[in-house]
Amino acid sequence: MNEYGQAAADILTALGGRDNIRAATHCATRLRLVLNDESKVDQAALDALPITKGTFSNAGQFQIVLGTGTVNRVYEEFVQQSGVQEVSKQEAGALGAEAGNPVQRLVKLLSDIFVPIIPAIVAGGLLMGLNNLLVAPDLFFKGKSLIEAYPQYADLAAIINMFANAPFVFLPILIGFSATRIFGGNPYLGAALAMIMVHPDLLNAYGYGAAKLEGTVPTWNLLGLSIEKVGYQGTVLPVLVLSWILANLEKFFRRIVPAALDLILTPLLSLFITGILIFAFVGPLTRLLGDGITAGLTWLYDTAGPLGAGLFGLFYAPIVITGMHHSFIAIETQLLADIVRTGGSFIFPIAAMSNMAQGGATFAAAMTTRDQKLKGVASAAGVSAVLGITEPAMFGVNLKLRYPFYAAMLGAGLASAFITFFGTKAVALGAAGIPGIISIKADTIVPYIIGMVISFGVAFVGTLLLARTRFNPDLAAPVEVAAPAETTLVATTPATVAETAPVSQVVTPSAAAPVVETVAAPATAADPRLTGWVMPLEGRVLPLGEVPDPVFGSGMMGPGFAIEPASGEVRAPLGGVVETVFPTGHAVGLKTDSGLEILIHVGIDTVNLNGQGFTPLVKQGERVSAGQPLLRADLNAIRPQVPSLVTPVILTNLAEGQRVEVSGGQVTLV
């Protein structure tokens, strides 16, 4: 049995045997498995395997990180030994969703519906926050607002306020389109249904309460049944339920209506029946239920106060690990849509406190750990966390060491109690961290900032203290690492680079691919394998820790950096041989003539597109030169379908202890 066969056998045993494997697939870097029972996994045995770089469970899939070039060979052996069902990425995702319990399936359903509409809600919410800065009294001037001090800008504030309100007034249309698509119906019918719910002939939902008290709610008389003519602006639950009814009616009629009449009768009957249900029965009932949920959450927050918020903040990070936090999107959307009554969202500020705590703990971990590789990951992941992206910090550092995670939980809990004492709420969604300041109610911005300092500080100091206790694994196994050499890679304008260019050579710009100039520091310490480096993509260079993916962002695949692409042409950074071109075209692996192994993975979760938007330009085994195009990606087509286009560039075979640092667009190999 070869090494890949042995690795597959060891993995299969650690997973609980072939009877515990329901389905299997793989992407460019990891095995993606649907298990019957994840509790049977021997995690310690998996972690002990030299071939395994990391594992995690997400959306019903147990994923084992093996690395490019290795994963496909282990997968072939794994499938042969286990006799497991091979499935596509989409089928694995569907099976994984089915494998979850009802709560997990509900969380995934809500996430699938609301994640695509987040940009619209964030944009509207941030504009609302900007408007609040303009009209809030006592923020910039005592006794008056900025607009009152400069009335010539009053119309600008009015325009911003209109822009801000639009996504919430027409929120049912956004949800109707997305939800009907997820439920298996025609999303355009879902949008049409939602347009009925916010039609201007109806009494605006925001005026329903006052009209009810005055007895002036308009009605229809339908066959003796009095039906209120009330809209559903800013509501969530009614359109969710009605989208499900619409999608199922559409599927029902498609089964029974003759094909010749399907195009006419199916949408007509589906929309008409669901439309009647909106106003006659389902709409009023779900409006009442939605109002009750909102009132209940607001009451719970007001009643439990700082103690309840402190407990929520304490356990927010463990909730993130389970994925349950995705369900909060729907709740926050409802809280913000009904902001007149709720005052805003209390969840967002607490999430921000948790993120700041994870960042503080990660920075402290970078100071206390003796693992040089982890130090490099932690410094970048800490920055990412305080800016609102915590996966690299949480999964790549804090959970590995554990004691920073405990300190972060404490910091988040104390800070959440503090900000709740001052009634801190958000009027918008956004990046839950330092950038989230603009999302906070104007009169509670100062407590929010103090809360961030408390959260970061408690987590930072707590991590330093716990590092001196038995919770720190480094105390049991001290590690000595020699100081590594440095090679600095400075991004320059596009240029063509000779593969044999000496390290100290300054490259003259021309009109080809963007390059990285190699500068020795000192000259004798430079890594000759990087001579003639060409940047694989045009765009902004980022630390690896800012990649919104736990595998890449935590450094499981190895050190590297990332690029936020400005164009979709991926080029060879050095001359060499193409080792891997993934069938879906989203990733390519090279082995350079100097022996360096490089993985370029365009975007996050792009494997799920099954090749859509990608055009490979080379084949496995083909020789390439520095700057030669490897693949093209249609960024405009891909962007709406994936979480991020940020592209990790991983150097998979660097020496132990070497790491890559990014500062000010400059990439340094240390």
TrEMBL record:
Top-level taxonomic group: Bacteria
Record-linked Pfam families: PTS_EIIA_1, PTS_EIIB, PTS_EIIC
EC number: 2.7.1.211
Biological function: The phosphoenolpyruvate-dependent sugar phosphotransferase system (sugar PTS), a major carbohydrate active transport system, catalyzes the phosphorylation of incoming sugar substrates concomitantly with their translocation across the cell membrane. This system is involved in sucrose transport.
Residue span, PTS EIIC type-1 domain: 121-482
Protein name (database record): protein-N(pi)-phosphohistidine--sucrose phosphotransferase
Taxonomic classification: Bacteria, Thermotogati, Deinococcota, Deinococci, Deinococcales
Gene Ontology CC annotation, any one: plasma membrane
Compartment(s): Cell membrane
UniProt organism field: Deinococcus proteolyticus (strain ATCC 35074 / DSM 20540 / JCM 6276 / NBRC 101906 / NCIMB 13154 / VKM Ac-1939 / CCM 2703 / MRP)
Catalytic residues identified in the record: C27
